[in-house]
């Protein structure tokens, strides 16, 4: 069982520009298509993981679990040769195990293997260089080979041709076979000489690959988003998707939240018309974040400590 870790990266929402939005717009549809291709049992797992990653949901379940009184029982001495009966897990223990699994962090010291569904050799090597830079901050290891996907046993399957930019979170990638991408960087597979913008996009998706999440609903900051209905119209999303992705989370005892960090690589850049106060919103950023911030690095070291 993976150890429970209640940690939230300090991030907010970003879109690259009005004309070129990031993975949560174009890539979301591709991700959902990939999930729908999974067996129903696997779809249920990944949906449940998504639900349990919401700290507000964790808090409600925790309160419910703590309110359950354990059954009264007396310990009887065992008869000769009798084996003790296993003690069923308490509601709290069951919840903690579920939440730990949902965090999708890789095992401590695990070696990650990557295969490629397409893309030139220079592009593959550039991806691996960027990934290695981030993995170096952790106790994880990265196999530097760049094979074609097929029967390699790789945990991560990279594509450069699916729609948008996206990555499944951490070890959720294990639910997909090697015919399906778990990380996609549309249009970046033709060459290895990536622009700083492309490199920044790759870092963002590799952050998800390592288990980092978007947290634009950071409880320590009020972005002042427009109404859910207005944002749904701007993004052409369903109202429920906007509510899940934009509504502010409540600060709860289950959360370990790092300070809000507008310089985070995981911070999305939204146009001013997503906010009630436009450019005056604390979540409106002028400069696109394309490098890891000190807080990003500290967070990676925190979830994968080397000692």
General description of the model:
The protein has 307 residues and is mostly helical. Helices cover 34% and strands 6% of the residues. The protein folds into 2 domains: 1-19 and 214-307, no CATH class; 25-49 and 106-200, no CATH class. The chain has 9 helices and 6 strands, in the order H-H-H-H-E-E-H-E-E-E-E-H-H-H-H. The strands form 2 sheets. A 4-stranded mixed beta sheet has the order 2-4-6-5, sandwiched between helices. Helix 7 (228-235) packs across helix 8 (239-246). The model is unreliable at 1-24 and 249-257 (pLDDT under 50).
Concise synopsis of the structure shown:
The chain is mainly alpha-helical. Helix content is 34%, strand content 6%.
Report the principal-axis shape.
globular
Largest sheet: 4 strands, mixed
Mean pLDDT: 76
What is the element string, with H for helices and E for strands? HHHHEEHEEEEHHHH
* Total discrete domains: 2
The main sheet orders its strands as 2-4-6-5
Brief descriptors of the model:
307 residues, mainly alpha, four-stranded mixed beta sheet, two-stranded parallel sheet, 9 helices, 34% helix, globular
Q: How are the SSEs placed, and which strands pair?
A:
Elements: H1 26-36, H2 40-52, H3 55-67, H4 91-102, E1 111-112, E2 114-116, H5 121-135, E3 141-142, E4 156-159, E5 165-167, E6 183-185, H6 196-209, H7 228-235, H8 239-246, H9 294-303
């Amino acid at each position: 069982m993976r150890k429970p870790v209640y940690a939230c990266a300090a991030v907010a929402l970003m879109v690259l520009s009005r004309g070129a939005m990031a993975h949560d717009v174009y890539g979301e549809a591709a991700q959902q298509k990939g999930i729908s291709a999974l067996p129903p049992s696997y779809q249920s797992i990944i949906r449940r993981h998504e639900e349990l990653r919401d700290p507000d949901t964790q808090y409600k379940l925790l309160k419910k679990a703590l309110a359950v009184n354990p059954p009264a029982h007396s310990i009887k001495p065992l008869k000769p040769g009798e084996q003790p009966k296993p003690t069923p897990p308490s509601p709290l223990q069951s919840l903690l195990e579920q939440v730990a699994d949902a965090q999708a962090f890789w095992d401590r010291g695990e070696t990650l293997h990557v295969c490629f569904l397409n893309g030139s050799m220079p592009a593959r090597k550039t991806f691996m260089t960027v990934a290695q830079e981030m993995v170096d901050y952790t106790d994880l290891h990265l196999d530097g080979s760049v094979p074609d996907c097929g029967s390699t046993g790789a945990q991560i399957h990279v594509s450069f041709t699916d729609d948008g930019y996206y990555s499944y979170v951490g070890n959720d990638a294990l639910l997909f076979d090697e015919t399906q991408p778990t990380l996609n960087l549309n249009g970046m597979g033709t060459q290895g000489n990536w622009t700083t913008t492309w490199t920044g996009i790759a870092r963002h998706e590799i952050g998800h690959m390592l288990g980092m999440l978007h947290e634009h609903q950071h409880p320590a900051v009020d972005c002042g988003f427009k109404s859910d209905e207005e944002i749904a119209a701007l993004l052409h999303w369903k109202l429920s998707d906007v509510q899940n992705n934009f509504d502010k989370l409540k600060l709860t005892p289950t959360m370990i939240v790092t300070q809000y960090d507008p310089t985070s690589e995981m911070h999305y850049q939204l146009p001013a018309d997503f906010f009630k106060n436009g450019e005056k919103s604390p979540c409106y950023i002028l400069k696109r974040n394309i490098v890891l911030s000190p807080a990003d690095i500290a967070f990676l070291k925190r979830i994968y400590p080397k000692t």
